[in-house]
Design brief:
Blueprint: H1 2-9, H2 34-39, H3 56-65, H4 72-79, H5 83-93, H6 102-112
């Protein structure tokens, strides 16, 4: 019984050989203008994800609020955008959040320690 299971595992189906497929009719897939493409049945518009550009007022608000301790979720609801959009725009503007937790403790410890005295040889 084990022998038949091993043989069945390595069994390959025979390859079917037939006539080659018909070449595609390019007159049905290529369009002269963008308007023809949009009017065709193949075109589907993505209406669920519209492109919203950032206004200068929104960028100014983000530059003022993002470096503070205000949560990013609150900033996102104020601007009507997603959290990932807020973080991506802040990264492109070069904005940083304030340090918190162990990173803030380490930064304050580094600032509190005096520099070592100069070594004279």
């Amino acid at each position: 019984m084990l022998q038949s299971a091993v043989c069945f595992r390595y069994y390959r189906r025979p390859i079917k050989v037939g006539p080659p497929p018909e070449p595609a009719d390019l007159s049905k897939t290529l369009y002269e203008t963008l308007g023809e493409w949009r009017a065709s049945a193949q075109y589907t518009h993505n209406e669920w994800k519209p492109t919203r550009f950032w206004l200068r007022d929104e960028e100014d608000l983000l530059e003022r609020v993002y470096p503070t301790a205000k949560p990013v979720t609150d900033i996102a609801t104020d601007l009507g955008r997603s959290v990932s959009a807020i973080r991506a725009k802040a990264r492109s503007l070069g904005l940083r959040r304030p340090l918190r937790g162990r990173a803030a403790d380490a930064a304050s410890a580094i600032e509190a320690t005096p520099p070592p005295p100069p070594v004279c040889w």
